[in-house]
Design goal:
With 284 residues, the protein is of the alpha+beta class. Helix content is 34%, strand content 9%. It contains 8 helices and 6 strands. The longest helix has 24 residues. It is globular. The structure holds zinc ion. The site of zinc ion has 6 residues, from strand 3.
Length: 284
């Protein structure tokens, strides 16, 4: 299994690259197919979705799917029927409330037996992470229309091609997985960043990481007017910056917080104690 600190990959050929990509993304494609067949609207989320946005990593991230809130159990049942066993260990690390960068998923599966190179599959309800999109936005049960403002498929030829140290390029040989397009992915992650940045819940680690996937390759990412000027400044080449890179982000975040545009952050304490969180500058 490859790890975070491994050297970047060099592929001997395009065929070798596609084989690595297929092996890495196949579990997500299998899950999407199972959920689609069970009529459970779903999208791939988290760092693996970020592979298509701008940061294909050489190590395997947890597989995260968002499904409609009321269909979490249906999704779990469909996966169980297909050979995935939900974890019922009350002492499992995934359920830790302290020093856990992820929200605790209502359902998760340890998938090493099926995919030796992969670890955990997490299912999350849509509402906890994509509240910024309209309620009517429900992923749907059929492929997204060509002009869908938010959704596309992982094999879509409009996705930017593979770049070494950048995006993976479309997953053309695998079952197509529903994803947010690169702009909607970025905007959804910004909302989450703005909600959780520097909060004691520690969830910002994941959002900043996902935002990094988009920031590395901002070409083709266009956000709504509220975010666009900030985004353009945030993604300027180093030489063109006139202030610290994160300043425009923090400025807009503060404005939106003071206008009560953000929901309250999940009340988890990553640090375990109030004193620990306060020492680290986390707010509640
Ligand atoms: Zn577990």
């Amino acid at each position: 299994m490859r790890h975070r600190n491994d050297l970047p990959r060099n592929f001997a050929s395009e065929e070798a690259r596609i084989k690595v990509l297929n092996d890495q993304a196949r579990p997500a494609a299998d899950v999407a197919k199972i959920l689609d067949e069970a009529q459970v609207p779903n999208i791939l989320w988290g760092a693996m979705a970020g592979f298509l946005v701008g940061d294909w990593r050489c190590y395997n991230e947890d597989i995260q799917f968002l499904v409609l809130d009321h269909l979490i159990q249906t999704a779990s049942n469909a996966l169980f029927a297909a050979g995935f066993t939900p974890c019922t260990d009350p002492g499992c690390d995934v359920l830790k409330t302290v020093r856990n960068d992820y929200l605790i998923p209502p359902v998760h599966f340890h998938v090493q037996a099926l995919y030796p190179e992969h670890d955990v599959l997490r299912l999350y309800p849509k509402s906890g992470q994509l509240w910024s999109l309209p309620d009517s936005f429900d992923f749907g049960t059929s492929p997204p229309a060509a002009d869908d403002p938010h959704l596309m498929l992982s094999n879509d030829s409009r996705l930017p091609p593979y770049i070494p140290e950048g995006m993976s390029g479309p997953w053309t040989e695998l079952y197509p997985i529903k994803i947010l397009n690169r702009s909607s992915f970025t905007e959804a992650v910004l909302w989450l960043c703005f909600r959780d940045l520097d909060h004691a819940n520690g969830l910002d680690t994941q959002w900043v990481d996902m935002l990094g996937s988009a920031r590395k390759h901002p070409e083709g990412i266009t956000l709504s007017p509220k975010f666009q000027a900030m985004w353009e400044e945030f993604t300027l080449p180093e030489a063109q910056l006139t202030r610290r890179r994160w300043e425009p982000v923090l400025e807009l975040m503060k404005e939106m917080r003071s206008n009560n545009e953000l929901p309250p952050p999940p009340r988890i304490n990553w640090f375990g104690t109030v004193e620990g969180a306060e020492r680290a500058g986390g707010w509640f």
